[in-house]
Amino acid sequence: MNTPVTVSWSVEGQERTALWCSSNNAAPPKSILQVDDTLGADDAYKLATSGTGMLFTGDYHNARQLLSAIARRLPDGAKAKRNTAPPSTAERFYKYRQARTHRARILSMLLVPLGAGPVVSLRRAPDVTEAWTNAFGRLEADAVVPLQELLGAIGAQQWRSTGLHIAALDAKIHPHYGTFAPVRGEYLDLVARAELPGLRRGFDIGTGTGVLAAILAQRGVKQVIGTDSQDRAIACATQTFQTLGLEDRAVAIKQDMFPEGRADVVVCNPPWLPGTPATLLDYAIYDPKSAMLRSFLKSLPEHLVPGGEGWLVISDLAERLGLRSREELLGWIQTAGLVVLGRDDTVPSHGRAMDTSDPFHAQRSAEVTSLWRLGVK
């Protein structure tokens, strides 16, 4: 949404124009058709798969039901075709990811109009002012947004308002839109219980909500610097430190990877799976060609004090899916001039690992998350 883009459509021979809004930087539909409550789900699905955007002008709740109906018509991409050789786990996962990307694109074809403020210009629409403003800032002109993204902003506002209790901090944090909510407490517990090599200075690379930096600060590290490349993450982490009363020892700065200087402990919880992000939240899950992971390992030695440690918090799900091998990870560690000082493992306790309907339940239920303690050779 940094570069203004407009979309146009026709109503009774008159051309209408509005701003195009997409936090995922999705391209606007090539053509837009104004529709209302009379549009059936089958016709909507056909329009969406043909690349036609549907600007809904009826009832808000009917728009949500139509979106759900379109979603039910989409294949999940997890099943193999008949009479073909069984694909590998990695091949199945790639197909699944392709289907999810296709799904996101199709669902983004159902659009809703916004008036300045913003106001959702549909009957029975909720007040989205706070959710939209916290996610994107004020809206000064008429706009069009995918309903799916508007619902994401509304859901994020609920997370932000309610907060998320973090057992490792014994406190709540309030995730912002576009920052990954740390619902998986097991990896936070690894950082909370690892023996600290020193208390003078710590770095948290890719801080997100700031939760790992906050754990270090709460454990007594005197100066903690969290870095992130996203403005929304910096704002969220800063609020986390203020809410917890840690702003005198923890700070978030906009920086790609490492800040200047060296630290006693450098923690990084990179995206766990190699892959291309398709949505804003995907950036917390998918790391193209493991670029962030490899960059962290390569530069870590020059940012550790003598005797300092790098804490890599990462799952082995990529290995179980066949996307990356343990040998590759160990090779990157060795090439960087690092040694493994120790490792602490934990098993998942989140709901998805227990979901037997998940097409990758076998891999998710066997997943192990580890804190790798790394030192310089």
Structural write-up:
This protein is an alpha/beta fold. It has two domains: 154 residues, no CATH class; 214 residues, Vaccinia Virus protein VP39 (Rossmann fold). It contains twelve helices and 18 strands. Strands 1, 2, 3, 4, 5, 6 and 7 form a seven-stranded mixed β-sheet that branches. The protein has a seven-stranded mixed β-sheet with strand order 12-11-10-13-16-18-17, sandwiched between helices. The protein has a two-stranded antiparallel sheet with strand order 8-9. Strand 5 and strand 6 form a beta hairpin. Helix 1 crosses helix 2 and helix 4 packs across helix 5. The longest helix has 19 residues. The chain is globular. The two termini are 45 Å apart. The mean pLDDT is 92.
List keywords for this structure.
alpha/beta, 2 domains, seven-stranded mixed sheet, 12 helices, methyltransferase activity, Small_mtfrase_dom, methyltransferase
Strand content: 25-35%
Oligomer: single chain
CATH architecture of the largest domain: 3-Layer(aba) Sandwich
* CATH first level of the largest domain: Alpha Beta
Number of strands: 18
> Could you give a short account of the major beta sheet?
7 strands, mixed
Order of helices and strands: EEEHEHHEEHEHEEHEHEHEEEEHEHHEHE
